[in-house]
User: Fold this.
Amino acid sequence: MNGWIFNVLYGKKVNDIIRDYLPYLYQDRYVYRCIDSKDLNQLFELLSNNSDVQYFNPHNFDKETLENLHDNPSFLMMGVFDSQKLVGYFFLRFFFNKKAFIGRMVDGDYQRQGLAKGMSNIMYSITWDLGFRCLTTISEQNKPIFDLHKKEGNVVFLKKMKNNYHLVEILPDATVSDL
Assistant:
């Protein structure tokens, strides 16, 4: 139901933002774009065969779940591609109450190259252009992500959740660097 309501209220604006914004984002040899249905097998492989997903648990990683999320208008799946190879996954999960949850992960061989920062720039820009709150959950045990959020600035830890996770809001005036 959320997907349908979100699509009616915001679907056109999201598509306009993506059409106007994503095609122009490149970082060195990397391309940031929406994940197409033909990319879902690569996404499945990236999520299934990557030890770096230990603290990245936003949804199930089976093929059926990925297909359902891809078809959900309130779930925007994006990727970072090195040529045709998917090396990073990030998403926005929108709720019609003007909240959006973000998530990202980068393949271990491609970390420390600024890809996560590029993902953040895209997710924050889309979320704030829509006038939504930008939320995420992070594990206390995932120190690199904790540090990344602290560097980005204007992060508010809203509440501690079970299993040492925190609900976090990234405020619109957070520092977002140009790609």
Q: What stands out?
A: The longest strand covers residues 85-95. Residues 46 and 61 are 10 Å apart (CA to CA). The chain has one domain: 2-170. The two ends are 35 Å apart (CA to CA).
